[in-house]
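QA checklist item 7 of 12: single-chain prediction sanity check.
[x] sequence parsed
[x] length recorded as 345
[x] structure emitted
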Amino acid sequence: MRFIYDLTYDELNVWVLAQGQKSYRTKQIYQWLYQKRATAFEQMTDLSKEMVALLNTHFHLNPLQLVKRQESSDGTIKCLSKLTDGSLVETVLMIYDYGNSVCVTSQVGCNMGCTFCASGLIKKSRDLTSGEIVAQVMAIQRELDKKGERVSHVVIMGAGEPFDNYHNVMRFLRTVNHDHGLAIGARHLTVSTCGIVPRIKDFANEHTQFNLAISLHAPNDELRSRLMPINRAYPLSELMGALKDYSEQNNRRITFEYILLKDVNDQDEHIKQLAGLVRGMNAYVNLIPYNVVDEHGFKQVDFASALRFYDKLTKSGVKCTLRQEHGADIDAACGQLRAKHEGKL
């Protein structure tokens, strides 16, 4: 039996028609799911009993069960949830001036092996379906409903590599973007990759308005290969070439994510190399405070040093931001709460 969140609008419409129903039923069901946030098919009161019975026969509604919830003093909320097969996934709500941003997980575990990341402490066991990713957003939206607020932005930056689960991630993006779904604007949806070049090329050919972010974290091949094994397969020359093609095809600005690691990638030489790498591109660099994972041994750059890095990079002609730290008093790093729950930390 499938999760109904796994169906795109068009797929649900095909199913509805196959049941001998009119296509307007598709819109009704989608609105009940995403706009009225139904938690049971019986709540869909403008459907016939026959239609409700068909839905119950063919679909499950919610694949998530909350296991643990943490809330930071800054309003950040992190949820650890169990899927129907017992797998655990994390979802994070971050509160910004511009709205409520949800960070979702795309895989159970991660095989990318980035040396600073808690996600890699647990190896990938499987991809999430599009519906399992959708359900994470819906769980946060139901929580926000209590305050009369809505999810305004979604980033696929949680555990796992989104472009290693490309098909399901794209289905997820189209579902939450759909007018009859959550109707989150395409430019408020961001997918982050560590640099799988073939999928970046696929993404370029989609010609969507979704945002693309690149986990860069080092400005040269030697350091990046040491921090991020993916760089050995797709070195910076290949990555930057694919990104320039993407930018030219889509006229979209790229975000480069750069976690500041004390005495590792935060020196003057790195500023110079980073500026040379991205200067002139339709892009900006998002400098990110490091959420310490004790097992990895990396240290956080203090605020004064981060501000110095930001100032020098800006003066080098690079547009950049210094991201506000979120969830410092909870298990904020991607995969950290799950790893602790499973005894990996």
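[x] summary fact logged: The first strand starts at residue 2 and ends at 3.
[ ] second reviewer sign-off
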